[in-house]
Amino acid sequence: MxxxxxxxxxxxxxxxxxxxxHEMVDSLLxxxxxxxxxxxxxxxxxxxxxxNPTLRDTEDFKHKLWDHLFIMSDFQLDVDSPYSQPxxxxxxxxxxxxxxxxxxxxxxxxxxxxxxxxxxxASEHNPERVTDEVINIARYMRSKSYEFNCEHPNxxxxxxxxxxxxxxxxxxxxSAVSYMRSEYRPGVQQxxxxxxxMQRSNGRKMQKMQKGQQRHQPHR
Length: 220
Hints:
The chain is mainly α. It has 9 helices and no strands.
């Protein structure tokens, strides 16, 4: 007895329609009369619509069904379709090659956006706006540096790094950054760690004091 397994059959172009619909489409290719072939194709379209009622809620579901019919025939079916027959090239989307970023980050601990901000501020002509933006950038650089190094750079270091990242495009007034005050407040985790260290330290001190008192107590 010869067994007919699915893996020995040809591959289904649209498995959601099942093998019987694919066999019906294959039978359309054997019909020589074009008018009869078109009539049978419309009957197959009706069966496909009944098998996929969810397509009726979509826009142009009839157009989708005809496209699926041509796909299942491997674009070989020649019938009078109410829509333009798609080609293999139309449905085969070739992905475009994505350009790999080649920008060089001067200081990686500040990130790429800090350098972009500085270059954008360098082209600004309003002095007051430049001052405000530079201070915001300096604060941003301080926070990013803390995330990377767990320490805050001083104002002189930030000014030096800003001049380097500006690339000599413009002379930015950085005097306001010199008087910038650190507004950093430790987070909850840092405060909890510091509190835990103080509690452990106080606990060790209390234990030493208790041991010292026990040593100096007279024996009864």
